[in-house]
């Protein structure tokens, strides 16, 4: 089953959740203040956030006033359209370098799923017959290196590691040399989880990025921020600060196999205009899917159409 | 979109009402609208917010507010009181078995911080002369067992493991081992799982049945959004939680999930995780969380932090000054000196009313050391008289100070404005009932 099949399954299970609410909301066909207020709650309940929600509902109000649609279906389409305006219609794949290796830096706060995502991504790329090397750039957390090693073995990727406590910049520097020597197509760099308000850790990250850039001109080709779908409004602050320290090229939204809707994505996309490249839908190797905005929005509203 | 503090917004709203004499129902609703938005921004679940607001509204429409001379402050007071009541009044203790070992089971979603919290809790207990045993029952995540072992080694704590065997078997054997070796606590780390994963939730129920834990602690990431209620509800229904550990509170989230979880489970939040190191773990103070969720600084935590880090006399002096509003720029400079050696600045500054905002004004979202250097330079370029009495700093003085500190007049203005705001707030704290751990009105 594809991800959105799963999301839809998940949604069916939780009729009392967002979609159940929307369904009863839209079946009324009366678009008055109550309707819009309830709609606000539905979006806020999906973590879209107050500001983004108010803006989106305001736009919808205007559209409804202008077009005077007769039925709910049409209003759903309008709302989907508004969401897609923010998320972009197209899915965007990985940005591969013209000359190998492509270097991918993976960032995020603690526990969002960086290492797991790297394992899954390595698996995907291996399935496309790419030679993949992963770099154990988390030298801080206990057993982080072993965790990545397990994933590297599962995926059939090479691994470059140092001891726990080593300088992460040095690990990545070595990884890049190794990748060139071995002719790797892609290098994926793990980093230690860090809260974005820890200035010293963010400075370390800035340095790590600079080292990668120096070691290989043009790198990193992708800087992916991993966001946990369960996270609320703080994800916006995360995206902002990480983007400031190491300009992001893409987002990965993990844990969409739960009941969280990851609506904060809409708020992040609205403010920072960074494409979502992948979604995580489980803990297994093949539980990483390319993000397709249209499907995501369709899945969100699927019981309605 | 910088979130202004609720108190700021409310002050705006209520200013418009000033001079109108008594409040009307409509006025109360306008004020509560701001409270509602603040709670939603803080990730409190929208249903929880709804209930909360309707409760507060009822009280606000009572005589005590409508006929009060300071209705604005009354509204705030009620909001804070109700929020504090909902969060629970005082820190809750860990349950204890009548005959040891006390069995503690850590459960929660993936990535919420169970393993780290298990190790921290054990370390916390060890410091109190207990003899905890850690058990590694996360057999799924790669290197999860290893992670607990490494932490155990670092902290000098025994770790029980049986490799990838059935977690129920592991838990049972760990209990045996704890009994045999006279460990007075057994802390079981379990694998992260989704609350809708029937199979894995069933596994937890089997562990529970096998070892009858005295504490089943749900580990919740403080950054969790609206879904916190579903997660907490499911875990509570399946396992009968006895408490919550709120992690990653050292981040800059307002942590509304705390309120959501608390209100759907009724369980006390027992511990807070405040960093990656083992000692960044404290009993949770629910009364302080209310002001954090509302976007107020946490003066009490600050004072406590200061007390442990500075010498006691200085701290007492500062506390007195904070409360009696005699806190001057001179003191501020003095604090900066000491603060420099205290580590995470953001964390400290966030705790100070007005300072969180000041940090934001100065540079994006973070306060970094360079900014502090700037602030320090500005204050250093003032004369002693100016530091003690900033009111005399007119525009020519501002120009001189800016030139002397290599900053812009605007920077000086900002600092003075923020300091003034801070002092005004202090004044309110001073006037209020801030005694010991008491509550305080915050506008
Ligand atoms: N259900 C689910 N779990 C996930 C997903 N992605 C990661 N996880 C789990 O989340 C937990 C944390 O994942 P990690 O990959 O260790 O996260 P991390 O960001 O590397 O963590 P740190 O390095 O400790 O900051 C693990 O238990 C993963 O199995 C997902 O898409 N769905
Ligand atoms: Mg990791």
- What is the highest CATH level, the class of the largest domain in chain A? Alpha Beta
CATH architecture of the largest domain in chain A: 3-Layer(aba) Sandwich
Shape of chain B: globular
* Strand fraction of chain A: 5-15%
Largest sheet of chain B: 8 strands, mixed
Helix-strand topology string of chain A: HHHHHEHEHEHEHEHEHEEH
Overall radius of gyration of chain B:
24 Å
Number of helices of chain A: 12
Structural class of chain B: alpha/beta
Secondary structure tally: strands of chain A: 8
Percent of residues of chain B in helical segments? 55-70%
CATH architecture of the largest domain in chain B: 3-Layer(aba) Sandwich
Number of alpha- plus pi-helical segments of chain B: 21
State the share of residues found in helices of chain A, binned by percent. 40-55%
Return the CATH topology of the largest domain in chain A: Rossmann fold
The overall number of domains of chain B is 3
Name of the CATH homologous superfamily of the largest domain in chain A = P-loop containing nucleotide triphosphate hydrolases
Question: What is the ordering of alpha helices and beta strands of chain B?
Answer: HHHHHEHEHEHEHEHEHEEHHHHHHHHHH
Largest interface: A-B, 55 and 56 residues
Outline the fold blueprint.
The complex is a heterodimer of chains A (305) and B (443).
Chain A: H1 3-13, H2 18-26, H3 33-45, H4 50-67, H5 72-87, E1 102-107, H6 114-127, E2 132-135, H7 144-155, E3 158-160, H8 168-182, E4 186-189, H9 199-215, E5 222-228, H10 234-245, E6 250-254, H11 264-272, E7 276-280, E8 288-290, H12 293-301
Parallel strand pairs in A: 1-4, 1-5, 2-3, 2-4, 5-6, 6-7
Antiparallel strand pairs in A: 7-8
Chain B: H1 6-17, H2 25-41, H3 46-60, H4 63-66, H5 71-87, E1 102-107, H6 114-127, E2 132-137, H7 144-155, E3 159-160, H8 167-180, E4 185-190, H9 198-211, E5 215-221, H10 228-239, E6 243-247, H11 257-265, E7 269-273, E8 281-283, H12 286-293, H13 299-309, H14 312-324, H15 329-339, H16 345-351, H17 355-362, H18 369-380, H19 384-388, H20 395-405, H21 409-431
Parallel strand pairs in B: 1-4, 1-5, 2-3, 2-4, 5-6, 6-7
Antiparallel strand pairs in B: 7-8
The structure holds guanosine-5'-triphosphate and magnesium ion (MG).
């Amino acid at each position: 089953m594809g991800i959105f099949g799963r999301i839809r399954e998940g949604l069916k299970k939780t009729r009392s959740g967002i979609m159940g609410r929307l369904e009863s909301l839209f079946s009324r066909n009366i678009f008055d203040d109550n309707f819009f207020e309830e709609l606000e709650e539905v979006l806020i309940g999906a973590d879209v956030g107050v500001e983004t929600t108010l803006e989106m509902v305001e736009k919808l109000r205007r559209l409804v006033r202008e077009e005077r649609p007769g039925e709910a279906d049409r209003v759903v389409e309008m709302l989907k359209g508004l969401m897609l305006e923010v998320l972009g219609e197209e899915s965007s794949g990985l940005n591969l370098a013209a000359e190998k290796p492509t270097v991918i830096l993976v960032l995020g706060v603690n526990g969002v799923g960086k290492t797991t995502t790297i394992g899954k991504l390595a698996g995907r790329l291996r399935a496309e017959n790419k030679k993949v090397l992963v770099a154990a750039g988390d030298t801080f957390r206990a057993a982080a290196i072993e965790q990545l090693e397990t994933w590297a073995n599962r995926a059939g990727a090479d691994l470059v590691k140092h001891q726990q406590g080593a300088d992460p910049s040095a690990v990545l520097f070595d990884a890049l040399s190794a990748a060139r020597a071995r002719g790797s197509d892609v290098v994926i760099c793990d980093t230690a989880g860090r809260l974005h308000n820890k200035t010293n850790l963010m400075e370390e990250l800035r340095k790590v990025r600079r080292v990668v850039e120096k070691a290989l001109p043009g790198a990193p080709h992708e800087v992916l921020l991993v966001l946990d779908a369960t996270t609320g409004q703080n994800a916006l602050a995360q995206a902002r600060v990480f983007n400031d320290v190491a300009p992001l090229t893409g987002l990965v939204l993990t844990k969409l196999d739960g009941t969280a809707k990851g609506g904060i994505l809409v708020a992040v996309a609205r403010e920072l205009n960074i494409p979502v490249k992948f979604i995580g839908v489980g803990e297994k190797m093949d539980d990483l899917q390319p993000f397709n905005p249209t499907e995501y929005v369709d899945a969100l509203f699927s019981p309605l159409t | 979109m910088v979130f202004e503090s609720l108190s700021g917004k409310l002050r705006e709203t209520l200013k418009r009402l000033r001079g109108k004499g008594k409040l009307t129902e409509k006025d109360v609703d306008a004020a509560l609208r701001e409270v509602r938005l603040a709670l939603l921004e803080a990730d409190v679940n929208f249903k929880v917010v709804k209930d909360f607001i309707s409760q507060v509204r009822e009280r606000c429409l009572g005589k005590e507010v409508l006929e009060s001379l300071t209705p604005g402050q009354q509204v705030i007071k009620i909001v804070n009181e109700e929020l504090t009541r909902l969060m629970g009044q005082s820190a809750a203790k860990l349950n204890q078995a009548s005959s040891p070992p006390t069995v503690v089971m850590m459960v929660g979603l993936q990535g919420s911080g169970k393993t780290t919290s298990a190790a921290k809790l054990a370390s916390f207990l060890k410091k109190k002369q207990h003899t905890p045993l850690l058990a590694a029952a996360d057999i799924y995540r790669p290197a999860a067992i290893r992670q607990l072992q490494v932490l155990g080694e670092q902290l000098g704590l025994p770790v029980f493991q049986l490799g990838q065997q059935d977690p129920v078997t592991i838990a049972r054997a760990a209990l045996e081992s704890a009994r045999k070796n006279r460990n007075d606590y057994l802390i079981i780390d379990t694998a992260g799982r989704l609350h809708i994963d029937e199979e894995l939730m069933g596994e937890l129920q089997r562990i529970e049945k096998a070892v009858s834990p005295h504490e089943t602690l749900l580990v919740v990431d403080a950054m969790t959004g609206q879904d916190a209620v579903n997660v907490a509800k499911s875990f509570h229904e399946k396992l009968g939680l006895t408490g919550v550990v709120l992690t990653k509170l050292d981040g800059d989230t307002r942590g509304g999930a705390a309120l959501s979880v608390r209100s759907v489970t009724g369980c006390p939040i027992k511990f807070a995780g405040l960093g990656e190191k083992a000692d960044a773990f404290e009993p949770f103070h629910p009364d302080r969380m209310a002001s954090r969720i509302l976007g107020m600084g946490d003066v009490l935590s600050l004072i406590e932090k200061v007390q442990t880090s500075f010498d006691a006399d200085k701290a007492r002096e500062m506390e007195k000054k904070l409360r009696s509003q005699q806190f001057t720029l001179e003191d501020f400079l003095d604090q900066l000196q000491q603060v420099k050696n205290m580590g995470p600045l953001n964390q400290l500054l966030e705790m100070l009313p007005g300072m969180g905002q000041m940090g934001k004004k100065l540079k994006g979202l973070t306060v970094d050391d360079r900014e502090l250097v700037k602030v320090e330079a500005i204050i250093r370029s003032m004369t002693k008289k100016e530091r003690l009495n900033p009111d005399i700093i007119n525009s020519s003085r501002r120009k001189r100070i800016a030139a002397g500190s290599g900053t812009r007049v605007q920077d000086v203005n900002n600092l003075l404005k923020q300091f003034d705001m801070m002092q005004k707030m202090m004044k309110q704290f001073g006037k209020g009932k801030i005694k010991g751990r008491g509550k305080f009105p915050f506008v």
